[in-house]
Specification:
GMP Synthetase, Chain A, domain 3, OB fold (Dihydrolipoamide Acetyltransferase, E2P), about 425 residues, 4 domains, N Utilization Substance Protein A, Chain:P, domain 4, 15 strands, 4-stranded mixed sheet, 5-stranded mixed beta barrel, alpha/beta
């Protein structure tokens, strides 16, 4: 018999996909049963026997021996005269088992079967890869940098599977070189042109959460819980943690002795400042902690509007806002409140003031609305801040801010002269 030797195919298949033997045998069996159905119209009387260890394949045909001239179904029955040509000892009523010669199918059919087998192997490879990485979403993986492009980095895992780290998922300060190892969290599995694409991330809050799990045994053991993480990748992160054991200080445990635990994470995140905050259900206290490193003197909370006016000493305002407004933005995300910070002397008093809407004939309404958005709805509240502070807190150009300050200041001067 001209059998198909599949040793190499089996070996490559098993090593590449790590599929179990029953799955492997079922795929090959299905492919050749399809071949039989195309040639004979049915595979009911055929047995496909796959030996995955030896790497060979046999197809056995079963037919019942009947008297000459009584063959009704040629697929299931064979005449006695034909049967004894194969084995002289056969008798009517016995079952004839005949090994098929692969050449009977024709070279073209065999080639098509091999191509179908290769296609099925490819499909199973994709399915296994999707399942494997879908089960690992949220895990940290260390992979080798294989290629660095402008918009993404290609990495290879231990089995040679391709992983993609898009530019949007990289920390701005990240720099990769071919051959080095990089750590990231498995973000998701996408399908592109019917091929699985494993997407990694270094900007996800989950990446920081997993790094903390690795460095802080109390988190891994469940003694400390991470309630929420907010990040501006490469710039700052705030982590709210809670301890389930009164004897454990969650902040101290996460930071470690002299910062030993947090330093490694900070280096991994390219010197991202990480504020560890003790979580509490007391919203006022949580807001105070979220604006760290600034210290709030007092605040006014509007629970209905989820709005907070926080009043601080003059030297604390810039700390609360942070560089490019990152600190206050993260505090808002962490607490769920819209926080506006003011100097203590900015609080509304009974002194003469002018509503900012009164300047609508000189200042465009969208500019006034932008000032209102950051809590500056009167002339005094605008003049109480420097141009630099207003630029940080609003989305306005410095020239526009200077024009507004000039208009408001001139109005106050006119009012003082009139009085």
């Amino acid at each position: 018999m001209a059998s198909i030797n599949l040793v190499d195919a089996f070996q490559d298949f098993k090593e590449a996909e790590n599929l179990d033997r029953p799955t492997l045998m079922k795929v090959v069996e299905d492919v050749f049963k399809t071949l039989l159905r195309k040639k004979y119209g049915s595979d009911d009387n055929f047995d496909v026997i796959v030996n995955s260890e030896k790497g060979d394949l046999e197809i056995i045909r079963r037919r019942m021996i009947v008297e000459d001239g009584e063959v009704i179904d040629p697929l299931a029955e064979v005449a006695y005269t034909q049967a004894i040509k194969i084995e002289p000892d056969f008798e009517v009523g016995e079952e004839l088992y005949e090994e098929m010669d692969m050449l009977d199918f024709g070279r073209r059919a065999i080639l098509a079967a091999k191509q179908t087998l290769a296609s099925r192997i490819g499909d199973l490879k994709k399915t296994e890869l999707i399942k494997k990485y879908n089960d690992r979403i949220g895990e940290i993986i260390s992979a080798e940098v294989y290629q660095v492009w402008k918009k993404e980095v290609l990495l290879l895992d231990e089995e040679g599977n391709e992983l993609i780290l898009p530019k949007s998922e990289q920390i701005p300060q990240d720099y990769f070189k071919k051959g080095e190892n990089a750590r990231a969290v498995i973000e998701r599995v996408d399908l592109k042109n019917n091929n699985p694409v494993i997407i990694l991330s270094r900007t996800s809050p989950l990446f920081l959460a997993k790094l903390l799990e690795i460095e802080v045994p109390e988190i891994m053991d469940g003694l400390i819980s991470i309630k929420k993480i907010v990040r501006d990748p490469g710039e700052r992160a705030k982590v709210a943690v809670e301890s389930y054991d009164d004897r454990i200080d969650p902040v101290g445990a996460c930071v470690g002795m002299k910062g030993s635990r947090i330093h490694g994470i900070v280096r991994e995140l390219k010197n991202e400042n990480i504020d560890i905050i003790n979580y509490t259900t007391n919203n006022q206290l949580l807001i105070q902690r979220s604006l760290t490193p600034a210290k709030i003197s007092y605040m006014k909370i509007d629970e209905d509007k989820k709005q907070v006016d926080a009043y601080l000493e003059q030297d604390q305002v810039s700390l609360a806002i942070g560089r490019r407004g990152v600190n206050i933005k993260l505090a808002c995300e962490l607490t769920g409140y819209e926080i506006d910070v003011f100097r203590k002397d900015e609080e509304v008093s009974n002194e003469f003031d002018i509503d900012l809407d009164e300047f609508s004939d000189e200042i465009e309404m969208w500019i006034i609305d932008e000032f209102k958005r950051v809590g500056c709805d009167t002339a005094k509240s605008v003049l109480g801040l420097t141009a630099e502070e207003l630029e940080r807190r609003t989305d306005l150009e410095i020239e526009t801010i200077n024009d507004v300050l000039r208009i408001v200041r001139e109005e106050f001067e006119r009012e003082e002269e009139a009085s």
